[in-house]
Amino acid sequence: MTRLCICKMCSCGRHRCTHQPTTLFKKGSQTNVLSEYSEKYPAYKGHTRPKSLKPQLQYKAHQDMMDGTTTSRTDYIPYMVTRRPGRQQVEYKPKPGEIDLGTTYKQDFNPYEVQPFVPTRPKERVHAMNAQLVTIPTYKEDFRPWEISRRELTKPDTTYQPPTAKFGNSTTFQDDFVHRGLAPRESYKPSNMAKLSDAPFENMTSNKLSYVPHALEARYFKPPEEYKPSNVPFQDLTTHRQDFLGLPSQLPKSCKPEPLKVTSSKPFQSSTEFRDHFQQWPVSLRQVQKSVEYTSPTAHMDMTTTSHTDYIKHQIQPFVSAKPFSLPTKSSKPFQGNTTMRDDFQPWVAQRQSVIRKQEEIQRASGKMEDLTTFKAHFIQHDAQPSLSFKPQNAPLRTDAPLQNETMYRTEFTPKKISMCPASFESPPGFVFDNCDDQGHRFFRKMSSADMIETPKEMVLTAY
Fold it and tell me: Is 378 left (phi over 0), alpha (psi -120 to 50) or beta?
C-alpha cells in the first residue's frame, strides 16, 4: 500500500512537513553512543500518543431563525420628547415717585466762591536813561599794548660744510663676507626615463602551474510537473449560502418627505424691511469755505531796530600779533644727496638663471602645415534631394465588413477547475494518518473500505 507525505500531496507548493533537526544516527533499537540520556532512558514500545482534549475549530451554525431584537432595543423604549417650557420674563414697571440724587459728598462739601489768584511778585519796571553807553571795558583801560622790539638770536651763525675726504670706515659685514658670483647647482634628481630590461618576461604564476581543469557535470534540472485537472466537480456551496437563507419580510419605508414644488400665481413681492424703513433722503453738497485773497500793505514799513538805533560805532585798531615771522632760509648751492650706503653698495649686474630644459627628442617641422585632409580632398558636394515621406495619412479606414472580435484567448483557452490543496486540511480527505519519520515527515495511506466503516461520518464531513 502506497504512502504519501504532505510534501508530495501539496499541489500549490506552500505546505511542507515540520522537519526535525538532523541527527547522525537514526532513532531505533540501537542506542545512541553520543549522549548519556539515550542510554539511561530507552524508548518504550507500544506507547501511543495521548489524544488532545482541545476542542476542534469547527463552525457550528445556528439552526434557529435570527431575531433582530437587541438589549438596547428592549431596554431603551423611545418616548415622545417635547420642548422644555421657557421661563416667562416679567414685564418692567417703573416705580412711582422721584429719585433722591443727594449724596454724602454733596451734604458735607458745600460749594464756595473762589477768587482768582493774585501774584505777589511786583511788576518789572524798565529804567530808561538818556546817557550815552560807554563800551570800553576795564581790561582795555588797565592793560594797554606795549611796544615790543625784536629780540636778537644768541645762536652762532655757522653754515654746514660737507667733508671733502671719502668716508673710509668699513663694516664687519664688508670685511667677513666677500661677495662671490652665483653658480648654478648640480641637480641630483633622477631622470624619468624608464629602464628597459633585456631578460624575457616570466608570465608563469602559481595558479597556472598548480591549477588542473576538471570536467564539470551537467546541471540537474527538475522537470516540471504536468497539470492534471480534477474529475470531481467544484463545490461552491459556502457556509454563508448554507446558513443565511434570508427571511421573508417587507422593505423598510422611507421617512423622507416627498420633494414637492411650491408654485404660486401671485407676483413676487420685492419689497423688504430695509427698503420700507430706510428711504432715500435728499442730501445737500458740502459748503467749502473760500480763502481770503492776500493784499499787500500800501504803507511804508519801518525796518529800524533798537540795536540799529542805539549802537554807536567806534574806531578800533586791529590786533597785532607778537609772534615773530619765520623767514625761510634758501641756499643757492645744489643739494648733495650722496650717502655712504649709495657710495659703498653699488648695483651689480645680476642675470636671471635660465630654466634647465631637456633636449627635445622629436624635431619640430619648420614648414607650413598642410591642413588639407582626405575628406576635404575626396569629398564632392551634391545637391540634397528631399526624401519622400511614406507615412500614411491620418484618414480613418472604414470598411463594411463586420468586426472579427475573436481572439486566441477566446478560441484556445480551456477553463480549468480550481481544486483545493489536500495538504491544507488537518487530515487530508481519503487518507488516514500512518506514522511519522525521523526527519519529521508525516505519512498518510489511502483509506480502504474497512477504514471507512470504522471512521464516523462527522470526521469525513469535517475533512471535506
Answer: alpha
Pairing of strands 442-446, 431-436: antiparallel
Strand order from edge to edge, sheet including 3-5:
3-5, 442-446, 431-436
pLDDT tens digits, the chain, 464 residues: what are they? 578 888 888 888 788 887 766 555 455 555 445 677 777 777 767 667 778 888 787 777 767 777 778 888 888 888 888 888 888 888 888 888 888 888 888 888 877 787 888 877 777 777 777 777 778 888 888 887 777 777 777 777 777 777 787 777 778 888 888 777 777 778 888 777 777 788 888 888 888 888 888 888 888 888 888 888 888 888 888 888 787 776 666 777 777 777 777 677 777 777 788 888 877 888 888 888 888 888 888 888 888 888 888 888 887 777 777 777 766 666 777 877 788 888 888 877 777 778 888 777 777 777 777 777 888 888 888 877 777 888 877 776 677 788 777 888 888 888 777 778 888 888 888 888 888 887 778 888 887 776 665 554 444 434 43
How far apart CA 105 and CA 110 sit, in angstroms, is: 9
CA angle 95, 96, 101 (to 5 degrees): 85
Can you tell me the distance from the alpha carbon of 267 to that of 265, in angstroms, rounded to the nearest whole number? 7
Backbone angles phi, psi at 411, to 5 degrees: -80, -40
Measured CA to CA, the distance from residue 149 to residue 322 in angstroms comes to 10
3 to 184, 193, 229, 384: CA distances (angstroms): 102, 82, 22, 83
String of b and e for 420-453 (b: at least 16 CB within 10 Å)?
eebbeeeebeebeeeeeeeeebbbbeebeeeeee
The three-class DSSP label of residue 435 is strand
Q: Is the dihedral of CA 173, 177, 183, 187 positive or negative?
A: negative
Closest CA to 424 of 16, 2, 60: 16
3-state secondary structure of 446: strand
Q: Is 455 exposed, middle or buried (0-12, 13-18, 19+ CB in 10 A)?
A: middle
Calpha distance 55→28 (Å, rounded): 33
CA 228 to CA 416: how far, in whole Å? 10
Please state, in angstroms and rounded to a whole number, the distance separating the CA atoms of residues 410 and 127: 136
State whether the Cα torsion 402-404-405-411 is positive or negative.
positive
Bridge partners of residue 406, in order along the sequence: none
